[in-house]
Amino acid sequence: MGQSKRLRIAIQKSGRLSKESQQLLKSCGVKFNVNEQRLIAHADNMPIDLLRVRDDDIPGLVMDGVVDLGIIGENVLEEEQIERQLAGKPAECTKLRELDFGSCRLSLAVPNEFKYKDANSLEGLRIATSYPNLLRRFMQEKGITYSDCMLKGSVEVAPRAGLSDGICDLVSTGATLEANGLYETEVIYRSMACIIQSNETQPTEKQALINKILSRINGVIRARE
Ligand code: PRP
Ligand code: ZN
Ligand code: MG
């Protein structure tokens, strides 16, 4: 395949980060139009291609050097990093900076009728999650044994469906927990969106473009503060 001359940036196709990721790049002067059917959007005024993919795929694409930059939640980045370290796959990339959107927390939550005292109340429970590695790290630190139930989506319905006793999922406003009769008991990770770069050595012009984009991002965020 070879290295592309154009700078490749992976962003979330649809979800919590997609609008703001696109908006940030537009504010940096990158002109592009997104066609919902298309994976790639070419910028008109700079040698930049945007790859619109599932958020969970972004860290791996950057760590494998398939794309040069990625905009992703720190939670997804960290989860993938642990996963890859365990699998002996490349797990390195550089976090260029934290961004000013995508704030959320990864939390444990249990059904409203559950009597929770402290983390020890989780002993022996089955927890549904899309973040098994971050959950394991927290539970190991607390010395709690548990079992997990891996779900990529609809985690919040697992207890009611009889699949698990509790969940470990992202919370932003808390509306999802409330709508599903759950309450938050422990915050295990706080996250923002961030921009990451692959650790591959870049040709000079491409690195110069990365530096330019980054300095514009700094300017845009400073102006919004
Ligand atoms: C997260 C999480 C909940 C929702 C919580 O999903 O899985 O569904 O956000 O937000 P709330 O507290 O404001 O209700 P996300 O948007 O990250 O989508 P994904 O799980 O499909 O990646
Ligand atoms: Zn996701
Ligand atoms: Mg969700």
From TrEMBL:
Top-level class of the enzyme under EC nomenclature: transferase
Enzyme Commission no: 2.4.2.17
Principal location class: cytoplasm
Compartment(s) where it occurs, according to its Swiss-Prot or TrEMBL record: Cytoplasm
Description of activity control: Feedback inhibited by histidine.
Pathway involvement of the protein, from the record: Amino-acid biosynthesis; L-histidine biosynthesis; L-histidine from 5-phospho-alpha-D-ribose 1-diphosphate: step 1/9
GO terms, molecular function: glycosyltransferase activity
Catalytic activity: 1-(5-phospho-beta-D-ribosyl)-ATP + diphosphate = 5-phospho-alpha-D-ribose 1-diphosphate + ATP
ATP phosphoribosyltransferase catalytic domain location: 54-218
Highest taxon, organism lineage: Bacteria
Cofactor requirement: Mg(2+)
Family, similarity comment: Belongs to the ATP phosphoribosyltransferase family. Long subfamily.
The protein's name in its UniProt record: ATP phosphoribosyltransferase
Species the sequence originates in: Shewanella ulleungensis
Origin organism lineage: Bacteria, Pseudomonadati, Pseudomonadota, Gammaproteobacteria, Alteromonadales
